[in-house]
Write a structure and sequence with these properties.
Elements lengths: L7 H14 L22 H11 L6 H8 L6 H10 L6 H5 L5 E3 L7 E4 L6 E3 H14 L3 E4 L5 E6 L4 H10 L16 E2 L14 H12 L13 E4 L13 E8 L2 E8 L10 E7 L4 H15 L10 H18 L9 E2 L18 E4 L5 E6 L5 E3 H14 L3 E4 L5 E7 L3 H10 L13 E3 L13 H14 L10 E4 L13 E10 L2 E10 L11 E8 L3 H15 L6 H7 L2 H11 L4
Parallel strand pairs: 6-7, 7-8, 17-18, 18-19
Antiparallel strand pairs: 1-2, 2-5, 3-15, 4-5, 4-14, 8-9, 9-10, 10-11, 12-13, 13-16, 15-16, 19-20, 20-21
Length: about 575
Amino acid sequence: MTNDAFTSEQKNYLEGFAAGSGLGMSLKVLSANAGGAVAVPADVHHAAQDRFTAAGKKLVAEEQAKRKLNGLDTWNMVLEHARDGKFPRGTDVFMMKFQGLFYVAPAQDSFMCRLRFPAGLISSAQLQGLADLAEKFGGGYVDATTRANLQIREIGPKNTVDLLMGLHDLGIINRGAGADNIRNVTATPTAGIDPQELIDTRPLARQMHHYILNHREMYGLPRKFNIAFDGGGKIAALEDTNDIGFTAVRVKAEVFFRLSLGGITGHMDFARDTGVMLRPEQCVPVAAAIGRAFSEHGDRTDRKKARLKYVLDRMGFDGFLNEVEKHLPKDVSLTRFPLADCEAKVEPDRYGHIGFHPQKQSGLYYCGVVLPVGRMTCDQMRGLAKIASQFGNGDIRLTVWQNLLITHIPAHQIENVKREIEAIGLDWKASNVRGALVACTGSAGCKFASSDTKRHAMEIANHLDDRGIAPDSPLNIHVTGCHHSCAQHYIGDIGLIAVKVAVGEDMLEGYHVFAGGGYGSRQEIAREIYRNVLATDAPEVVEKMVLGYLENRVEGEAFHAFIKRHTTEQLVELFERSAVPV
């Protein structure tokens, strides 16, 4: 029977049945004419792989594994490992990431589970439920990440299924939270409550989240993929560090989004403006078309060159956008518009994610709670959930700065909220170092990391506090454990990336130290200042860098401007001159 023999209703039913029953990999979408949609073959990834093998190239092991089993069909694999109480081996380690499960040995002989919260939105009930799950099936804590997300750690193999079912019961769908998929969709954390914002980005992040969940071609990409929406609010979404960045702009009282592509700061590249300007309703279909074009042209033979940046390097922005246009619905086009003709963007508040700030809703405030290098105990999670319900509206917002916001707090309840936050061992205020301190999981929980980044980050902050060294403006210090740069060390005022340092016959924890990074209007890749600094010496090295800045800056000069004004050799000389003998 031909495709034309089906009615529209029958086609829709069969498409849904195919997707739900797992037949989607062997069927093509029956029709795509309704609403101007584009037909999407369910085996687009196999077709992309075939083009490489037809050219005589060899697929990497991960691509071969995806060819044998679709990542969305790994539930039975999880069930088997849980039943037998065993951890995965070989490419099964990779495939289980499609369910958000990361086997992190040898750092920890356990799983980490990565979640999904579109725009970083989580309810107090969900946070309470997560505390119960982390306590029962994990290590009794969770880590906030630089993608406005949470991770549960120290999960035993027998607990994975109960944990995943518990997450789904809470309304947390983490499918595709790892592996070669689109990761947690981020957005301005103050969306909908921000007096400064141009547009509420929550609906777009939510639509993107559900589009990903319900389209199999969005899984099994050549590599991981990040999307962010910035609505022009008080807190930066860091969209310029994403594969796709949507930045709100205003033109003659109407709000549009600028499209930027190719951000991957771990590879020393920011997303670049494409010249394309979109209406809000066009963002999700354009993102989907970009995902399709990336799937077709991304390298499936070299994992190191498989991110979108390298497709853009190879094809050029115009060449890639031409491919994107082939996958757009008929009613969507890529309209170019000069960036210079858009109204200037209001700068975000570098400490808008800490402390109390007025909302656009009269008489209400949000509070940014400081999570020391992103970690919360289960009791603290329960305490935060109670505060959000008792004094707010139950909404909690995760940020890319590894902390969270509690919203809709009446002015007369602010002092009560302060006391409650302090009572659970957290804080609503921080120094200009602690409030901007970012650290990845490090070697305590990640097999790629070379140093215990969270511990060392806290040691740096403690050292500066003990010495009474207090910059009078926010100083971002980012400590990352490996080349993946989850803590984005290249965009920090001071960035540290872990390395092993040879001392005699021993290899000890250490760092290369960078300075001068920035984002947004201060966009800059940090440059290396020191190499092979022992972790035990890192606090003193950061100290002399901060002192060198404070002693030699011109009045009102920000740290990044100070770094930019000097050569590396000049900086080292100034820093060494400012070193204080211990």
